[in-house]
Design goal:
Protein name: Rho-GAP domain-containing protein
Radius of gyration: 22 Å
Strand content: under 5%
Domain CRIB: 3-16
Keywords: GTPase activation
Structural class: mainly alpha
Organism: Brassica campestris
Order of helices and strands: EEEEHHHHHHHHHHH
Distance between the termini: 58 Å
Biased composition (Acidic residues): 242-257
Strand order of the largest sheet: 1-2
Oligomer: single chain
Helix content: 40-55%
């Protein structure tokens, strides 16, 4: 029995998928079954490369996945920036699982707890196939000691990762500007974001690197706050160019002491954060 070729063929439409606008050219009868603004071309919006996701621009020109912009918008609209412990306190696991399912369908349900929204933003970064800061040479990052060196090293990031980092830093700066009510300063935010920005197999190496990443995030956040004209309480002025030579030497000694202090005091906090993130 021979199978004949197709007959009576009619070209109805040519459909393409655009990362910025979703499906283009889709016949109207199929539109109810397909989200008009699909957040991803894959089955999930978590744990996938940004190349398979719908992207858009934020107000600062960063090209980032739409899912991040949706979560950010909802977080801000619900007053999340003013909530004490935002990004530090974890949400309910059951609610997060439900919201994840809805996000994969291109929907954000109403009434989501702000801590759940914040946790999903951190989870999105944590579950990337490659950490945002992973393209950077780890050795070069570890050698950074000043704000200028941190700024210089992040310029080595590819455009995609650079946009994601800039978006995250500005998000952190937005939170810090409400520090008086949410109790989250630049150090606290850097502490909870650091474990989500890179991936290293060796636990000890990952811990040491996370401490340095925390310094990097804190430095960049305070730089943004300084550019926004934030108060001096948000900006580290120990490296002021107007300081006396003797004061500079004392500051260098203090920075060395601070380096040891950070390893001894903050490293355990990094460990706790990493453990909490994995539990979540």
């Amino acid at each position: 029995m021979e199978i004949g070729g197709p007959t009576n063929i009619q070209h109805v439409a040519h459909v393409t998928f655009d990362r910025f606008n979703g499906f283009l050219g889709l016949p109207s009868e199929f539109e109810p079954d397909v989200p008009k603004k699909a957040p991803s071309a894959s089955a999930t919006v978590f744990g996938v490369s940004t190349e398979s996701m719908q992207l858009s621009y934020d107000s600062r020109g960063n090209c980032v996945p739409v899912i991040l912009l949706l979560l950010q918008s909802r977080l801000y609209d619900q007053g999340g920036l003013q909530v004490e412990g935002i990004f530090r306190i974890t949400g309910e696991n059951s609610e997060e699982e439900y919201v994840r399912e809805q996000l994969n369908k291109g929907l954000i349900p109403d009434g989501i707890d702000v801590h759940c929204l914040a946790g999903l933003i951190k989870a999105w970064f944590r579950e990337l196939p490659r950490g945002v800061l992973d393209p950077l040479p780890a050795g070069q990052v570890m050698q950074c000691e000043s704000d200028d060196e941190f700024v210089k090293v992040v310029r080595l990031l590819p455009q995609t990762e650079a946009s994601l980092l800039n978006w995250a830093i500005n998000l952190m700066a937005d939170v810090v500007q409400f520090e008086h009510v949410n109790k989250m300063n630049s150090r606290n935010l850097a502490l909870v974001f650091a474990p989500n920005m890179s991936k290293m197999a060796d636990p000890l190496t990952a811990l040491m690197y996370a401490v340095q990443v925390m310094k990097l995030l804190k430095s960049l956040t305070e730089k943004i706050l300084g550019e926004r004209g934030a108060t001096s309480s948000h900006v580290d002025k120990r490296c002021s160019n107007e300081a006396e030579e003797g004061e500079k030497e004392e500051e260098e000694e203090e920075e060395e002491k601070d380096g040891v202090y950070i390893i001894e005091r903050e490293a355990p906090e990094i460990i706790r954060v990493v453990v909490d993130e994995h539990k979540a």
